[in-house]
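Re: adenosine-5'-diphosphate structure - here you go.
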Amino acid sequence: MKIKDLGEFGLIEKIKKLTKVSNDVVGIGDDCAIIPFGNKELLVTTDGLVEGVHFFSDIDPYLLGRKAISVNLSDIAAMAGIPKWAFLSISLKSNTDVQWIDKLLDGFLDVLNEFRVELLGGDTTAAGQTVINITLIGINDLGSSIRRSGAKKGDLVAVSGEIGCSFVGLKALINNIKGYEDEKQKHLNPKPRISEALKIKPYANAMIDVSDGLVKDCMHICETSKVGMKLYLDSIPICKNDIITEKEALCGGEDYELVFCFSNEHKNIIENMEEFTIIGEVVEGEQIQLFKNGISLEVEDCGFRHF
Ligand code: ADP
Ligand code: MG
């Protein structure tokens, strides 16, 4: 059996089964691990960007530096945490210009400063292709992090921003399509939704950031919360464009928006926050049902996975 047969999520599941963690911590399976510490809890996440997989070799290094930290900040946002400390591991080709790495660090440090995160360490190695890996630690009051597993039947589902814009930007970049500047920015320079997460923290029962694609990430909430979802396509704020299909918008990854579930009793409050749109509801079962004009559509198991 090859790794591509096992799949990215199959491999993570296999690793999870091989490990045991103490009762008071949350390990593999959420956007961050949760480690209780006095009357606080630490949130820890790690994510890497790999040349040829996540970015093209001719990428603007400043934007790469920004994105590398932003995707990690997005995982802290998904738990409604406050980001605090970062570790930066870089693997570089030996002929990389120092100017290139200077620009990468500029982008990286600009975002660190914007979110008042301190860099505490890292690692530097040579490699055949560039890899930027960041470990980020955040903090929350004990028990206050929003996990993927808290969705309840009867909850409503909402999303921040628009869905599919990053994929529109990617497609425009790959195919040299003029225009779509905001979408290209969304792909190259995603904005972590830390402040948005804090705004809905009092109401959210479950939350995830959209990295694999809206449908796939909703599926992650369903699996861990042991619920199903009805999503209404007419309500989903899909990025306006002429270059990707609705399905690609729902399945394309890297939106770095937030999807969260909250009790129906807070519907008015969430409806009045302009950053968010209600897109569905939590139901019994373990599947996602997609509706368009009241008609049920086939939901494919779509979304980005490495293998
Ligand atoms: P995200 O997209 O939110 O960054 P991932 O899909 O990368 O989340 O990971 C899902 C979960 O699996 C996370 O809890 C992550 O820490 C864990 N995970 C992923 N890869 C590994 C690995 N190689 N070893 C241990 N845990 C892993
Ligand atoms: Mg995540």
